[in-house]
Amino acid sequence: MPDQSPASGPGSAADPGRPLSLRRAEAVHRAGLLEVESYDLTLDLTTSEETFDSLTRIVVTSAGGSTFLDLKPTSLRSVHVDGAPLDVALLQRGRLPLDLPAGRHEVVVDAVMPFRNDGEGLHRSVDPADGRHYVYGMSFMDAAPTVFACFDQPDLKAPYTLHVTAPQEWTVVGNGAATQVEPGRWELATTQPLSTYFVTLVAGPYHVVRDTHDGIPLGLSARASLAGALEADAEELLTLTRQCFDEFHRLFGIRYPFGEYNQAFVPEFNAGAMENPGCVTFRDTLVFSSRTTRGMRTQRAITVAHEMAHQWFGNIVTPRWWDDLWLNESFAEYMGNRVTASVTQFDEAWVLNSFQRRQWGLLADQRPTTHPVAGNGADDALEALQSFDGISYAKGSAILRQLNARLGDDVFLAGAVDHFTRHRFGNATMHDLLGSWERAGAADLGTFSDAWLTTAGPDLLEVDRTAGVLRRTAPATAEGVAPAERTHAVSLLVAAPGDGAEGGSVHEVQVDAAQVPVTVPDGGVVLLDPVEATWAATLPDATTVPLLPALVSATEDARVRAAVWNQLRSGVHHARVDPDAAVDLAEAWLPVETVDAGLVYTFPWVLSYLPHTSDPATSADRLQEAALVAARGAEPGSPLQLAAFQSAIGACRAADLLVAWLGGERLPEGVDVDLELRWRLLVRLAALGATDRAALDAALDAEPTAVSRVEHTRAVASLPTAEAKAFAWERLTGAVSVPNYELTAAGDGLWRSGTDGPDGVALPYVQEFAALVPTLPDVHSGWVLATAVEAFYPRSSVTAATVTAMTTLAARDDLDGSVRRRLLDATDELTHRLAVRRAFRGED
Ligand SMILES: [Zn+2]
To answer: How much distance in Å is there from the Cα of 275 to the middle of ligand 1?
Structure first.
């Protein structure tokens, strides 16, 4: 998957009623016992809107012994082993015990399975634009048993053959090429061996665009109501797809082996995308129905490349167990960025990575919940889900980039090819991959692996001018554990006062000790690692901070501007730099930034710190004005202008101006208020308390699309009234059941603030949240459970009392693992923000 923060499966050892999560030891035992020959699935999607019929035939060879089958049906009709019926009452907590004597067996399971609305299993949704129904499958990471009976673990691969009955007006695509053999009946070609978590099906009145490239049939699909937007984007998407295929074939010399390559944009998808062989699924907000920024297009291009990289890293060779998740995600993230930057029109992919992903990884790596990139130690599937974070993606990608630079392309790629060839259609571990690199000519990788892959936390790098040294501080480790010995090869951008960036000079520094001597001029800028060549949190020194606005104005290098922001953000995070400095920097930077991804991904962070500046109202006004200067200075109608105008809306606290913009007045020339901008304005007006429920309802009625539904929820929940906060809250409690995007939008709105912090009417929900969270798994499960906890966390209530309440909550021993992880991370962030208030706003 390309994107952030998934959460848990439904299992929990704490609750005897819920399905069990597969433990590593169980997976090892079952893999030693069984060899799965084939799956044959017959799915009938026409029986009802709540459930579907699922008939599974598994041919399996057993070494002889007891094991179990995974399935989580609505009801189980029958199970036969070699024709003899089993007692269906034996199914407990998602497991059906099986005794399989040595030899070949056929297991047949006839079940009724649930359509789900939380983005997992077979998700069924209704498009509010036209009332049509859509279905897609998401088997990752433990949802396959709500679609079909299976041995659900990554290293029991088998070919799949699907037979699907669907309403006659639907189209069907899946892992294998789908053929309609009679109206409403579809046969899908038998696949290569797949892990259970790859199995998908996309069915509904989807609009499909087809093409071929280099012998590979290509397909794009999206809801019928997005047909126009998909057609408008099709050439860009197909061009990216062709370019990426050509580059991966050139790099690896191993052809894509899974037949068709469908890219289906599906509704209410939790992640950014999922790499199912033959049928990648994407969230359909990536089919742009309003004008969008180049940053969003670049991010989409990287996602396309990331999912394609998975066809090799993950799909041809799959991690044996989830603790080697990085073998999927770090590689897909690295190769996705690299290929996008080198062969597509989006050559600023690495700059976007700096603006968007690096802080995500650095923060995750500095939380109390940090873990190594490799070997995350996951003992069960549930636990492994916690590692879909900035470490597995952004840090892992940065470490692989460092390794690639060190080994060179010849060795780096030859090792990968050796790995794909040895383990083709099978499974492997980190040690297998390190072995492949060593065979390809890498020296012993033990030292590299110890320093970067199997130890957690970033080093902190900073310059001490007085002492004339560059200092490296290793992350704290448990007592008795020595910190990782790391060497950093970085450059130092040094400019004398008045030099600007272009007048400065760059020195290479080898940081191979706790401190190394450096020479810096008095009073000038010192920027450490300006192109972010190493993985470390770098902090600007006190002399440099006030010079950063002049530096970003002077430099032509977008990488340097991104590095400046990352260092300033690290400085604020550690309460070394006053958030007022972020306002100063943003004010200088907004009118000069040319990469709109910078605005899209960095400016919301600046806004989130507004309540912690010395004068929030004035800070907001300065930022709004700077963003408008940028919008007026940009080419009319350009994506950069759009990003600047979006920023202006985010900072604006003048309701009359927002109302004027909504009415098409006083706009910078070239700005057109379309659906997306309209809702952005309405959400901002709502947060300021300058609109009401009736006006928001009217806006939804005027254009009732899926986007409108979600943004309407966000806007209503943002209103500073007790009724609005109750509206948000009843979505979390389950009193009102809504799809996943609306749920997270409600949480976002609940804690959205004007300029000074959260509204008083929201504050009672700090205690309500603390009381509700332990029972939330009764209402929400899987991915949605964790994202709901994150969305409704009282993030804008930066007070000692809230920190205490949340710390007490996170310490309870009856919490689901995914819930605890989100609470710990969010509370760490809150604690850091409180430290900023104490350091700079005189609070205690
Ligand atoms: Zn991925």
So the answer is: 7
> What is the tens place of the pLDDT at every residue in 433-449?
999 999 999 988 999 99
Ligand 1 centroid to Cα of residue 307, in Å, is 6
Give the distance (Å) from ligand 1 centre to CA of residue 336. 9
Distance from the CA of 323 to the center of ligand 1, in angstroms?
Answer: 15
Mean pLDDT of 42-60: 98
The catalytically annotated residue of 307, 329, 333, 587 is: 307
Q: Which residue has the tokens 């019928």?
A: 224
Strand order in the sheet with 469-473: 515-517, 469-473, 459-464, 536-538
Q: 324 CB contacts (<8 Å, ≥6 apart)?
A: 374, 375, 428, 429, 430
d(CA 572, CA 582): 8
- Could you tell me the sign of the dihedral formed by the alpha carbons of 339, 345, 349, 351, in that order? positive
Our answer to whether residue 307 is catalytic in this structure is: yes
Handedness of CA 89, 94, 97, 102 (dihedral sign): positive
Range from 332-346, 348-362, 748-762 carrying the lowest mean pLDDT: 748-762
Residue 609 CA, ligand 1 centroid: distance in Å: 30
Report DSSP letters for 585-624, one per residue.
Answer: HHHHHTTT---HHHHHHHHHHHHHTGGGSS-HHHHHHHHH
Rounded to an integer, what distance in angstroms lies between the CA atom of residue 475 and that of residue 709? 45
Peptide bond into 335 cis (omega under 30): no
- Cα dihedral across residues 668, 671, 675, 677: positive or negative: negative
Look up residue 727 and give its two tokens: 């509206």
What are the DSSP calls for 263-330, one per residue? EEEETT-SSSEE--TTEEEEEGGGS-SS---HHHHHHHHHHHHHHHHHHHBTTTEEESSGGGTHHHHH
Instruction: Say how far apart CA 377 and CA 720 lie, in whole Å.
Output: 44
The CA dihedral of 71, 72, 77, 79, to the nearest 10 degrees, is: 10
Q: Label residue 478 by pLDDT band (50, 70, 90).
A: confident
Give the residue from 484, 472, 458, 461 showing the smallest Cα distance to 364: 458
Nearest to 730 by CA among 695, 701, 765, 759: 765
76-132 pLDDT, tens per residue?
Answer: 999 999 999 999 999 999 999 999 999 999 999 999 999 998 999 999 999 999 999
Cα of 604 from ligand 1 centre, angstroms: 25
> What gap in Å lies between CA 58 and CA 668, rounded to an integer?
63
In the predicted model, is pLDDT for residue 509 greater than 80?
A: yes
Is residue 144 a contact partner of residue 150, using CB atoms and an 8 Å limit? yes
The Å distance, Cα 282 to ligand 1 centre, comes to 11
Please report which confidence band the pLDDT of residue 9 belongs to, taking 50, 70 and 90 as the band edges.
very low
Give, in order, the Cα–Cα distances in Å from 254 to each of 242, 283, 413, 434, 439: 16, 28, 11, 20, 18
Residue 810 in tokens: 């996170």
Q: By three-state DSSP, how is residue 432 classified?
A: helix
Band the pLDDT of 17: cuts 50, 70, 90: low
**pTM (2 d.p.):** 0.96
